[in-house]
Design goal:
The chain starts with 5 loop residues before the first strand and ends with a strand. The strands form two sheets. It has an eight-stranded antiparallel sheet with strand order 4-9-11-10-6-7-5-8. It folds into two domains: 86 residues, Orthogonal Bundle (Multidrug-efflux Transporter Regulator, Chain: A, Domain 2), CATH 1.10.1660.10; 142 residues, Multidrug-efflux Transporter 1 Regulator Bmrr, Chain A (Alpha-Beta Barrel), CATH 3.20.80.10. A hairpin with a 6-residue loop joins strand 6 and strand 7. The chain has 261 residues and is α+β, with helices and mostly antiparallel strands. The protein is built from six helices and eleven strands.
Length: 261
C-alpha cells in the first residue's frame, strides 16, 4: 500500500471527527474511502480527501442536510464548493431574519408588559391611550365556554397570519362588533408588518380608550358584562384583549375591555 494513504483513524483525528461519522458519510456516498483492503476491510483515505471532509463539516455548520449533498456533486463525485457556499449563505440569511424577528417579538412583548404594569390592579373604569395597531380577525360563532373550539379558532388565526408573512403577537382576544345586527364576535390576534390588502385586517388608530379589567371565565356572558359598564347602543366595537403581565395566572384569562372614546 502506498504511503500517501491515511488510516481511517488517522484521517478522523486530523479533523477531530468520529470514525462512525466517516462510515456514515461513506454510506451516503459523499466521502468514500480511496482504498479498502479486500482482506481486512480496513478503510484508507488520501490526504486530499480532507478538502471534501472540510466541506462536509462546513455543511453541518451551515445546516445543509448531508442527505442532499449528492445534489451538489459533479459527474466526478467532487463537491461544488461555490454552490454549497451560496446555499449556506441563503440558509444563514434566513436564520438571521428569524433571529431578528425573534428579537422584535421579544421587545414588543417586553414593552407590552411594561405598559400593562402601569395599569395593573386598576379597578373600575379608567382611561388609557393605546397606540395604533392592526388586528387580524376571524368570525367566531361557537361556544365561548368550549375551550377546544376557542383554541382551534385561535390557532388557525395564528397560523393564517404566519402563512401570509405577517407576524402575530400578543395581545390577542375578542372583538365585539356592536354595529352589526345581531351583534357579532370575532377572535383577533395583533400583527406586526400587516398586509393591508387582506380583508380580515382591521386598523385600530391611536386613541383614548375607556378600559376595565376583568378575568374571563368560560361561563361569562361577554355581552352582558360589557353592557353593565358601557352603552353598547352607542358603540361600533369593543375590544377584549388579554393583558400580559410580568406574572401569569393559569386559572383565569386576565383581560382588559377597551372601548374607544
Amino acid at each position: 500500500m502506498a504511503k500517501e494513504y491515511l488510516t481511517i483513524r488517522r484521517f478522523a483525528q486530523l479533523r477531530g471527527v468520529n470514525i462512525n461519522s466517516l462510515r456514515y458519510y461513506e454510506k451516503l456516498k459523499i466521502l468514500v474511502p480511496a482504498w479498502i483492503d479486500p482482506q481486512t476491510k480496513y478503510r484508507y483515505y488520501l490526504p486530499e480527501q480532507l478538502i471534501t471532509l472540510d466541506m462536509i463539516l462546513l455543511c453541518i455548520q451551515l445546516g445543509i442536510p448531508l442527505k442532499t449533498l449528492r445534489e451538489y456533486m459533479d459527474e466526478n463525485g467532487n463537491l461544488k464548493e461555490k454552490v454549497i457556499l451560496e446555499k449556506g449563505k441563503e440558509r444563514l440569511l434566513s436564520q438571521i431574519s428569524e433571529l431578528q424577528q425573534g428579537i422584535e417579538l421579544t421587545e414588543f412583548q417586553i414593552n407590552s408588559i411594561e405598559e400593562n404594569q402601569k395599569y395593573s390592579g386598576q379597578t373600575g373604569i379608567y382611561r388609557r391611550r393605546i397606540k395604533e395597531r392592526y388586528l387580524m380577525e376571524t368570525p367566531f360563532n361557537g361556544d365561548f365556554g368550549a375551550l377546544h373550539e376557542k383554541e382551534e379558532a385561535a390557532m388557525k388565526l395564528f397560523n393564517d397570519a404566519q402563512a401570509q408573512s405577517m407576524v402575530p403577537v400578543f395581545p390577542a382576544g375578542i372583538v365585539i362588533h356592536c354595529e352589526t345586527a345581531p351583534i357579532s364576535y370575532s377572535f383577533f390576534v395583533q400583527v406586526l408588518h400587516p398586509d393591508r390588502s387582506v380583508s380580515r385586517i382591521i386598523r385600530i388608530p391611536e386613541a383614548e380608550f375607556l378600559c376595565r379589567q376583568l378575568d374571563i371565565t368560560p361561563e361569562m356572558d361577554l355581552l352582558e358584562t360589557l353592557r353593565r359598564d358601557f352603552d353598547t347602543d352607542q358603540l361600533e366595537l369593543a375590544i377584549i384583549a388579554n393583558m400580559p403581565l410580568a406574572k401569569t395566572s393559569f386559572n383565569s384569562w386576565h383581560s382588559e375591555v377597551q372601548v374607544p372614546v
